[in-house]
Amino acid sequence: MEARLNVFGSPLASKFIKHVVSAGKVLADSPLPAATQELVKIRASQINGCGFCLDMHTKEAAAAGETSTRLNLVAAWREATVFTDAERAALELAEQGTRIADAAGGVPDEVWANAAKHYDEEQLTALVSLIALINAFNRMNVMLQMPAGDYQPGQFA
Protein backbone atom coordinates (compact mmCIF):
# COMPACT_ATOMS: atom_id res chain seq x y z
CA MET A 1 0.00 0.00 0.00
CA GLU A 2 1.25 3.47 -0.85
CA ALA A 3 0.02 6.80 0.42
CA ARG A 4 -1.98 8.93 -2.00
CA LEU A 5 0.51 11.78 -1.63
CA ASN A 6 4.16 11.84 -0.64
CA VAL A 7 3.92 14.27 2.27
CA PHE A 8 7.56 13.65 3.15
CA GLY A 9 8.63 14.91 -0.26
CA SER A 10 6.34 17.93 -0.47
CA PRO A 11 7.74 21.34 0.57
CA LEU A 12 4.23 22.55 1.50
CA ALA A 13 3.42 19.42 3.52
CA SER A 14 6.82 19.61 5.22
CA LYS A 15 6.14 23.18 6.36
CA PHE A 16 2.66 22.31 7.57
CA ILE A 17 3.69 19.12 9.37
CA LYS A 18 6.61 20.92 11.01
CA HIS A 19 4.16 23.30 12.70
CA VAL A 20 1.74 20.57 13.69
CA VAL A 21 4.57 18.48 15.14
CA SER A 22 5.72 21.58 17.02
CA ALA A 23 2.30 21.80 18.65
CA GLY A 24 2.66 18.15 19.63
CA LYS A 25 6.00 18.90 21.29
CA VAL A 26 4.38 21.62 23.38
CA LEU A 27 1.79 19.11 24.57
CA ALA A 28 4.38 16.36 25.19
CA ASP A 29 6.12 18.79 27.56
CA SER A 30 2.86 19.71 29.33
CA PRO A 31 1.82 18.59 32.83
CA LEU A 32 -0.58 16.01 31.36
CA PRO A 33 0.92 12.57 32.18
CA ALA A 34 2.74 11.00 29.22
CA ALA A 35 0.91 7.68 29.62
CA THR A 36 -2.44 9.47 29.49
CA GLN A 37 -1.34 11.30 26.36
CA GLU A 38 -0.53 8.06 24.56
CA LEU A 39 -3.77 6.38 25.68
CA VAL A 40 -5.78 9.33 24.37
CA LYS A 41 -3.93 9.30 21.03
CA ILE A 42 -4.54 5.57 20.72
CA ARG A 43 -8.25 5.80 21.52
CA ALA A 44 -8.93 8.65 19.10
CA SER A 45 -6.94 6.83 16.41
CA GLN A 46 -8.99 3.67 16.99
CA ILE A 47 -12.23 5.59 16.58
CA ASN A 48 -10.96 7.32 13.43
CA GLY A 49 -9.51 4.13 11.95
CA CYS A 50 -6.03 5.62 11.59
CA GLY A 51 -3.63 2.69 11.25
CA PHE A 52 -0.60 4.96 10.84
CA CYS A 53 -1.21 6.69 14.19
CA LEU A 54 -2.18 3.43 15.93
CA ASP A 55 1.08 1.88 14.77
CA MET A 56 3.06 4.89 15.96
CA HIS A 57 1.41 5.48 19.32
CA THR A 58 1.10 1.86 20.45
CA LYS A 59 4.79 1.36 19.69
CA GLU A 60 5.78 4.62 21.41
CA ALA A 61 3.69 3.69 24.46
CA ALA A 62 5.23 0.21 24.62
CA ALA A 63 8.73 1.66 24.28
CA ALA A 64 7.93 4.01 27.19
CA GLY A 65 6.97 1.03 29.36
CA GLU A 66 3.23 0.72 28.79
CA THR A 67 1.99 -2.84 29.29
CA SER A 68 0.52 -4.93 26.50
CA THR A 69 -2.53 -5.57 28.70
CA ARG A 70 -3.37 -1.88 28.90
CA LEU A 71 -2.62 -1.29 25.22
CA ASN A 72 -4.84 -4.21 24.23
CA LEU A 73 -7.71 -2.93 26.37
CA VAL A 74 -7.82 0.73 25.30
CA ALA A 75 -10.80 0.11 23.00
CA ALA A 76 -12.63 -1.58 25.90
CA TRP A 77 -11.58 0.87 28.61
CA ARG A 78 -15.07 0.98 30.16
CA GLU A 79 -14.93 -2.72 31.02
CA ALA A 80 -11.20 -2.85 31.79
CA THR A 81 -9.93 -2.64 35.36
CA VAL A 82 -6.41 -1.56 34.39
CA PHE A 83 -7.01 2.19 34.00
CA THR A 84 -7.13 4.82 36.72
CA ASP A 85 -10.20 6.98 37.21
CA ALA A 86 -8.26 9.92 35.75
CA GLU A 87 -7.29 7.93 32.66
CA ARG A 88 -10.88 6.79 32.24
CA ALA A 89 -12.04 10.41 32.38
CA ALA A 90 -9.45 11.37 29.74
CA LEU A 91 -10.49 8.47 27.50
CA GLU A 92 -14.14 9.45 27.83
CA LEU A 93 -13.35 13.06 26.92
CA ALA A 94 -11.26 11.81 23.98
CA GLU A 95 -14.16 9.72 22.72
CA GLN A 96 -16.67 12.54 23.08
CA GLY A 97 -14.31 15.08 21.51
CA THR A 98 -13.55 12.74 18.62
CA ARG A 99 -17.21 11.90 18.03
CA ILE A 100 -18.31 15.50 18.43
CA ALA A 101 -20.52 15.38 15.34
CA ASP A 102 -22.52 12.51 16.87
CA ALA A 103 -23.81 14.69 19.72
CA ALA A 104 -25.93 17.69 18.84
CA GLY A 105 -24.75 19.57 21.91
CA GLY A 106 -21.06 18.65 21.71
CA VAL A 107 -19.27 17.21 24.73
CA PRO A 108 -21.76 16.63 27.58
CA ASP A 109 -21.31 18.66 30.77
CA GLU A 110 -21.03 15.43 32.82
CA VAL A 111 -18.06 14.27 30.73
CA TRP A 112 -16.34 17.63 31.16
CA ALA A 113 -17.06 17.71 34.90
CA ASN A 114 -15.62 14.22 35.31
CA ALA A 115 -12.40 15.23 33.53
CA ALA A 116 -12.23 18.43 35.60
CA LYS A 117 -12.31 16.34 38.81
CA HIS A 118 -9.01 14.72 37.81
CA TYR A 119 -7.11 17.41 35.91
CA ASP A 120 -6.27 21.04 36.65
CA GLU A 121 -6.77 23.81 34.08
CA GLU A 122 -3.34 23.42 32.46
CA GLN A 123 -3.81 19.67 32.17
CA LEU A 124 -7.33 20.14 30.77
CA THR A 125 -5.97 22.64 28.25
CA ALA A 126 -3.34 20.09 27.22
CA LEU A 127 -5.94 17.32 27.06
CA VAL A 128 -8.35 19.29 24.86
CA SER A 129 -5.50 20.44 22.63
CA LEU A 130 -4.17 16.89 22.36
CA ILE A 131 -7.59 15.54 21.35
CA ALA A 132 -7.87 18.23 18.66
CA LEU A 133 -4.33 17.58 17.45
CA ILE A 134 -4.57 13.78 17.20
CA ASN A 135 -7.87 14.15 15.36
CA ALA A 136 -6.15 16.45 12.84
CA PHE A 137 -3.33 13.94 12.35
CA ASN A 138 -5.83 11.07 12.05
CA ARG A 139 -7.89 12.85 9.44
CA MET A 140 -4.88 13.73 7.35
CA ASN A 141 -3.44 10.21 7.52
CA VAL A 142 -6.78 8.52 6.78
CA MET A 143 -7.43 10.78 3.77
CA LEU A 144 -3.93 10.08 2.45
CA GLN A 145 -4.19 6.35 3.24
CA MET A 146 -0.85 6.40 5.03
CA PRO A 147 0.37 2.81 5.40
CA ALA A 148 0.90 1.33 8.85
CA GLY A 149 3.24 -1.26 10.28
CA ASP A 150 6.75 0.00 9.64
CA TYR A 151 6.99 2.69 12.33
CA GLN A 152 9.96 2.48 14.69
CA PRO A 153 9.79 4.19 18.13
CA GLY A 154 11.51 7.58 18.01
CA GLN A 155 11.39 7.66 14.21
CA PHE A 156 10.15 11.25 14.06
CA ALA A 157 11.90 12.55 17.19
Written description of the protein model:
- With 157 residues, the protein is mainly alpha-helical.
- The chain contains seven helices and no strands.
- The chain has helices at residues 11-28, 34-48, 51-63, 68-73, 85-98, 109-118, 121-144.
- The longest helix is centred in the last third of the chain and has 24 residues, at 121-144.
Rg on CA atoms, Å: 15 Å
Looking at how many chains there are and whether they match, the oligomeric state comes to: single chain
Note the total helix count: 7
Q: How many strands, which pairing sense, and closed or not: the largest β-sheet?
A: none
Shape descriptor reads globular
Order of helices and strands: HHHHHHH
Number of strands: 0
Average predicted confidence as pLDDT? 95
% residues in beta strands: under 5%
Structural class: mainly alpha
Helix content: 55-70%
